[in-house]
Amino acid sequence: GKFIRIHFGNAGKIAGADIEVYLLEKSRVIFQQPLERNYHIFYQLCSSAAEKYHKDLLIGTDPGKYHYVAQGKLTIDGVDDAEEWKLTEEAFDILGFSQDEKFNLFKCTAAIMHFGNTTWKQRPREEQAE
């Protein structure tokens, strides 16, 4: 993936930009090393700052209850997930996302968290599961 940082001057005009290329690890969503975290959005969504969405998304404030999120480190020194959530929402607003568009993204994020808590068992016939 690419991370694009746009720098604005005091007058609000673009003053510069830089692009960082990085690897988006799909496997990181479902597995983390013991001292690593999953993607920050999962922890931010569980933060108290996002509580207005918790009822509709059927999530709580404890990221440890979500298998995909709880395998690694739940907190990082110096990172306040509630404060980071506010910055994330502000970034969506600056980029012109509507409330519905933001909520749809949050629903997808919560769905991934819930999906990690599902269990599957194979039925006698190989191609079926329940």
From TrEMBL:
Residues in the signal sequence: none
GO CC annotations, alphabetized: cytoplasm; membrane; myosin complex
Domain Myosin motor: 1-130
GO biological process assignments: actin filament organization
Gene3D superfamilies cross-referenced by the UniProt entry: 1.10.10.820, Kinesin motor domain, Myosin VI head, motor domain, U50 subdomain
Keywords for the protein's UniProt record, in alphabetical order: Actin-binding, ATP-binding, Coiled coil, Motor protein, Myosin, Nucleotide-binding
GO MF term (any one): ATP binding
InterPro entries for the chain: Kinesin_motor_dom_sf, Myosin_head_motor_dom-like, P-loop_NTPase
PANTHER family: MYOSIN, MYOSIN-11
Family named by the database record: Belongs to the TRAFAC class myosin-kinesin ATPase superfamily. Myosin family.
Protein name (Swiss-Prot/TrEMBL): Myosin motor domain-containing protein
Native source organism of the sequence: Didymodactylos carnosus
